[in-house]
Amino acid sequence: MKPLLNVLAGILLSGTMIGTATAQEAQTGPSEAVMKYRERMFDEAVRPLANRTMDLMFNIAEVDAGETPSSLPVSLAPLNFTYEVDGKVHQGSDAIVNTFADALIIIKDGTVVFEGNFNRSTPETRYNSYSMAKSLNAVMVGLAVKEGLIASVTDQVTQYIPELKGTGYDGATIRDLMEMRSGIAWDENFFKPGTSSYNAHVAAWVEERARYTDAALITKREHAPGTFNRYNSLDAAVVGWVVERAAGMPVSTYLSTRLWQPAGMEADAFYVIDGPPGIGREFTAGGFNAVLRDYGRLGLMMLNHGHANGKAFLPEGFVDNLRHDITTAPSEDGLGYGWFWWTVPGTNAFTALGGEGQFIYVDPDTDTVIVKMSHGPVGPEADPVLREELAFMAAASQWDGR
């Protein structure tokens, strides 16, 4: 533990944390201390802190909120229900400890019936979404389609990013990418040195010597677009790039002006960017950060078919298309997949899902939204935790909230 504490102490005391890069940092890149912390952000001892301090580890782009938050009524109740997983019955509150929760909010019929912040987090804590940011990409595509900036999800990505002509993305549509069916050759295991995902992660996230989307410029095709589903963070990052090009502005600015402010979010959010301001691009595959209640407001918008704060933000039918399962069989964890949102077979529920246990779970049948922010394990150790999380979500959805 001492080497890890030395790393953290070196960062905290040296002034090398980079929420905003200095001119020298823009030229030289992050310090060795910062890079070591980034390399270890998924370690068990670091995760609980890293997930809520991304603005101290990375350069960021703020997503400004407006001045007047939308109403979010509250009528709190204890988690007086049970759920069953692997043959064992648990009390609802057991999930907080068992699944490494840092924050949890349950909204039923538009009213908050449970809200909790744990492990020294607060209502003002901005939690990293990890791959829930991919789901937000689909929302931004919907915003851009409604605004006429993107003609259709069947547009080819090269219409917006001509630099990708001749790469593995040539011929793929925006919809192909949202369904993780671009067909590019890609290994998503960013914990394994030498894989395409690991190389992009280190170059962009850790060392800031390249942009994450630079990997798209050298991709090769493995399958015909639209024919093979494989989880792929680069597809999500490229969709963020498409939104940036279509909007003619950074996605942080676009999200702020088109959704975060008019939908009545209560706090500024932010994206991690993969380089100094003016150089780095928002990491739209896993670097969005917001407070718990605003993730809840986003879930309510999805529950209400793209409507929030008295306004329609998404095209009619977009949410229904987004949550339509495109897979031929559930994944190993029992989930299906739509447009950057996971589906729950046998139900109408769908969820944004991020590494370490981040959820925006939406159940139209029970008018329920559940947001859970966590610091759970990664890799194979995460499988039993995910089973318990999904069992908890299903039971919480059926709970009457009283």
From TrEMBL:
Recorded GO MF terms: hydrolase activity
Hydrolase recorded as keyword: yes
Keyword set includes Methyltransferase: no
Source organism, top-level taxon: Bacteria
Beta-lactamase-related domain segment(s): 103-387
Keywords: Hydrolase, Signal
Family matches, as InterPro entries: Beta-lactam-related, Beta-lactam/transpept-like, Diverse_Enzym_Activities
Signal sequence extent: 1-23
The name this protein goes by in its record: Serine hydrolase
Biological source species: Altericroceibacterium endophyticum
Lineage: Bacteria, Pseudomonadati, Pseudomonadota, Alphaproteobacteria, Sphingomonadales
